């Protein structure tokens, strides 16, 4: 099971994940977010990141050229879309970019079932099932997931105290944590380490 820690923006955050060793981290490039990191800062942080950890770029209705530039420079390995991007947007992106694409779906909106079906049939590589627009710190009703054939990341309100139960219940491709491993809005080294440790224990029990 893949472990992703999202919303890194400081050198201390990089030091924490380099110690805990999740599989992926996320840089948020949406300027409205308090976790926003500028491309120049992300470039610096990426250079400090352990080579065994991949980096995803989180975007909200971003211009394709911006994404292509960040991927082309090797600042990000994956593209995570959290806006109202449509299937055509993704098809165009994948035509010019080899990075895998993750599409976030709000599982608390009225059209979540239609969105799941639409993106299940698309050429995105992964889904990310979240509460609201992400970063809410709240879980959603996992019964809404149903049967999916496309690999997905489970997000929304996950923290060291509930991530193992959620993982056992849903068996996702990966889990994604952000606010759940923070203290007062900043990434917490000990929470990151504990969350990763607990998921690794789940992996050993399942496999």
Automatic annotation (TrEMBL):
It holds the Pfam family PRAI. One of its GO terms (biological process) is L-tryptophan biosynthetic process. It catalyses: N-(5-phospho-beta-D-ribosyl)anthranilate = 1-(2-carboxyphenylamino)-1-deoxy-D-ribulose 5-phosphate. One of its GO terms (molecular function) is phosphoribosylanthranilate isomerase activity. It comes from the Bacteria. Residues 3-196 form the N-(5'phosphoribosyl) anthranilate isomerase (PRAI) domain. Its EC number is 5.3.1.24. Pathway: Amino-acid biosynthesis; L-tryptophan biosynthesis; L-tryptophan from chorismate: step 3/5. Coiled coil: none annotated. InterPro entries: Aldolase_TIM, PRAI_dom, RibuloseP-bd_barrel, TrpF_fam. This is N-(5'-phosphoribosyl)anthranilate isomerase. It comes from Muricomes intestini.
């Amino acid at each position: 099971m893949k472990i992703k820690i999202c919303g890194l923006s400081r050198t201390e955050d990089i030091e924490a994940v380099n110690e805990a060793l999740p599989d992926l981290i996320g840089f948020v490039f949406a300027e409205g977010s308090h976790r926003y990191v500028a491309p120049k800062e992300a470039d610096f942080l990426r250079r400090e990141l352990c080579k065994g950890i991949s980096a995803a770029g989180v975007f909200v209705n971003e211009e394709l050229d911006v994404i292509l530039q960040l991927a082309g420079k090797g600042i990000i390995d994956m593209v995570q879309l959290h806006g109202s991007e449509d299937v055509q947007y993704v098809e165009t992106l994948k035509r010019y970019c080899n990075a895998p694409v993750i599409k976030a779906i709000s599982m608390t909106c009225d059209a979540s079932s239609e969105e799941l079906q639409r993106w299940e049939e698309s050429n995105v590589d992964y889904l990310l099932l979240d509460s609201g627009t992400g970063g809410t710190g709240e879980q959603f009703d996992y019964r809404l997931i149903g049967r999916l054939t496309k690999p997905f990341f489970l997000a929304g309100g996950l923290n060291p105290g509930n991530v193992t139960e959620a993982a056992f219940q849903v068996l996702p491709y990966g889990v994604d944590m952000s606010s759940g491993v923070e203290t007062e809005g900043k990434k917490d080294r000990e929470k990151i380490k504990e969350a990763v440790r607990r998921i690794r224990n789940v992996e050993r029990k399942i496999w």
